[in-house]
Amino acid sequence: MAYQGQLPGGVTVTIEGRGDQTQVNVERGGQRQGSGRTTGRWTQAPKLWRTEDGGVVEIGADEKGWLRITAGGAQSLDRAPDLKGAQAVALTEVQDGEGQPEMKPMAPMKPMKPLGED
Protein backbone atom coordinates (compact mmCIF):
# COMPACT_ATOMS: atom_id res chain seq x y z
CA MET A 1 0.00 0.00 0.00
CA ALA A 2 1.38 3.42 -0.94
CA TYR A 3 0.26 7.02 -0.60
CA GLN A 4 1.37 10.21 -2.30
CA GLY A 5 1.00 13.89 -1.40
CA GLN A 6 2.30 17.28 -2.52
CA LEU A 7 4.18 19.83 -0.41
CA PRO A 8 4.89 23.43 -1.47
CA GLY A 9 7.82 24.03 -3.79
CA GLY A 10 6.98 21.12 -6.08
CA VAL A 11 7.90 18.45 -3.51
CA THR A 12 6.17 15.08 -4.02
CA VAL A 13 6.20 12.68 -1.07
CA THR A 14 5.49 8.97 -1.61
CA ILE A 15 5.00 6.78 1.48
CA GLU A 16 4.95 3.03 0.98
CA GLY A 17 4.44 0.26 3.52
CA ARG A 18 6.45 -2.92 2.86
CA GLY A 19 5.79 -5.28 5.74
CA ASP A 20 7.61 -3.88 8.78
CA GLN A 21 9.36 -1.26 6.62
CA THR A 22 8.17 2.16 5.52
CA GLN A 23 9.79 3.57 2.38
CA VAL A 24 9.60 7.35 1.93
CA ASN A 25 10.59 8.97 -1.36
CA VAL A 26 10.93 12.73 -1.68
CA GLU A 27 11.04 14.08 -5.22
CA ARG A 28 11.67 17.64 -6.33
CA GLY A 29 12.61 18.88 -9.79
CA GLY A 30 13.45 15.38 -11.03
CA GLN A 31 15.74 14.72 -8.04
CA ARG A 32 14.61 11.80 -5.88
CA GLN A 33 15.77 10.93 -2.37
CA GLY A 34 14.55 7.73 -0.79
CA SER A 35 14.94 6.24 2.64
CA GLY A 36 13.54 3.23 4.44
CA ARG A 37 12.68 2.91 8.11
CA THR A 38 11.63 -0.01 10.29
CA THR A 39 8.30 1.14 11.66
CA GLY A 40 6.33 -2.06 12.17
CA ARG A 41 3.21 -2.92 10.21
CA TRP A 42 0.81 -0.06 9.66
CA THR A 43 -2.37 -0.13 11.72
CA GLN A 44 -3.75 2.92 9.87
CA ALA A 45 -2.93 5.00 6.81
CA PRO A 46 -0.04 7.45 7.19
CA LYS A 47 -0.65 11.19 7.50
CA LEU A 48 1.29 14.03 5.92
CA TRP A 49 1.48 17.46 7.56
CA ARG A 50 2.77 20.65 5.93
CA THR A 51 5.01 22.60 8.31
CA GLU A 52 6.94 25.87 8.02
CA ASP A 53 10.17 24.03 7.19
CA GLY A 54 8.78 21.25 4.98
CA GLY A 55 6.59 18.48 6.25
CA VAL A 56 6.10 15.65 8.71
CA VAL A 57 4.94 12.11 7.98
CA GLU A 58 3.07 10.37 10.78
CA ILE A 59 3.21 6.57 10.57
CA GLY A 60 0.36 4.80 12.33
CA ALA A 61 1.92 1.50 13.41
CA ASP A 62 2.01 -0.44 16.70
CA GLU A 63 4.14 2.46 17.92
CA LYS A 64 3.64 5.76 16.10
CA GLY A 65 6.60 7.06 14.17
CA TRP A 66 7.41 10.44 12.64
CA LEU A 67 9.65 11.51 9.78
CA ARG A 68 10.67 15.09 9.01
CA ILE A 69 10.47 15.86 5.29
CA THR A 70 12.76 18.40 3.65
CA ALA A 71 13.70 18.90 0.01
CA GLY A 72 16.76 16.76 0.79
CA GLY A 73 14.85 13.69 2.00
CA ALA A 74 13.35 12.22 5.16
CA GLN A 75 14.81 11.98 8.68
CA SER A 76 13.48 9.90 11.58
CA LEU A 77 12.33 11.80 14.65
CA ASP A 78 12.73 10.38 18.15
CA ARG A 79 9.47 11.84 19.41
CA ALA A 80 6.30 13.50 18.21
CA PRO A 81 6.99 16.91 16.69
CA ASP A 82 5.01 20.02 17.57
CA LEU A 83 2.36 20.15 14.86
CA LYS A 84 0.78 23.39 16.07
CA GLY A 85 0.07 25.42 12.96
CA ALA A 86 0.74 22.45 10.65
CA GLN A 87 -1.78 21.74 7.92
CA ALA A 88 -2.92 18.27 6.92
CA VAL A 89 -2.07 17.37 3.32
CA ALA A 90 -4.42 15.13 1.36
CA LEU A 91 -2.83 11.81 0.43
CA THR A 92 -3.83 9.86 -2.65
CA GLU A 93 -3.58 6.08 -2.63
CA VAL A 94 -1.27 4.95 -5.43
CA GLN A 95 -0.11 1.61 -6.69
CA ASP A 96 2.69 -0.02 -4.66
CA GLY A 97 6.08 0.84 -6.04
CA GLU A 98 4.76 4.02 -7.67
CA GLY A 99 7.49 5.87 -5.80
CA GLN A 100 10.09 3.98 -7.81
CA PRO A 101 10.96 4.86 -11.41
CA GLU A 102 9.17 2.52 -13.78
CA MET A 103 11.46 0.21 -15.73
CA LYS A 104 10.23 -0.51 -19.25
CA PRO A 105 11.55 -3.43 -21.29
CA MET A 106 13.91 -2.59 -24.11
CA ALA A 107 12.69 -3.02 -27.67
CA PRO A 108 14.39 -5.90 -29.49
CA MET A 109 17.43 -4.87 -31.51
CA LYS A 110 17.30 -5.13 -35.29
CA PRO A 111 19.90 -7.38 -36.89
CA MET A 112 22.97 -5.56 -38.13
CA LYS A 113 23.70 -5.43 -41.85
CA PRO A 114 27.12 -6.55 -43.01
CA LEU A 115 29.58 -3.72 -43.72
CA GLY A 116 29.33 -2.33 -47.22
CA GLU A 117 25.63 -3.09 -47.63
CA ASP A 118 23.09 -0.28 -47.41
Structural commentary:
The chain is an all-beta fold and 118 residues long. Helix content is 0%, strand content 49%. It contains no helices and ten strands. The strands form two sheets. It has a five-stranded antiparallel sheet, with no helix packed on it. Strands 8-7-6-5-9 form a five-stranded antiparallel sheet, with no helix packed on it. A hairpin with a 2-residue loop joins strand 7 and strand 8 (73-77). The chain is elongated and about 75 Å long. Residues 34-44, 103-118 have a biased composition (Low complexity).
Strand order of the largest sheet: 4-3-2-1-10
- From the structure provided, what is the oligomeric state, counting identical versus distinct chains? single chain
Order of helices and strands: EEEEEEEEEE
Q: SS-based structural class?
A: mainly beta
Radius of gyration: 19 Å
Helix content: under 10%
Largest sheet, in brief, is:
5 strands, antiparallel
Low-confidence residue ranges: 98-103
Mean pLDDT: 83
Proportion of strand residues:
over 45%
Estimate the global geometry from the Cα principal axes: elongated
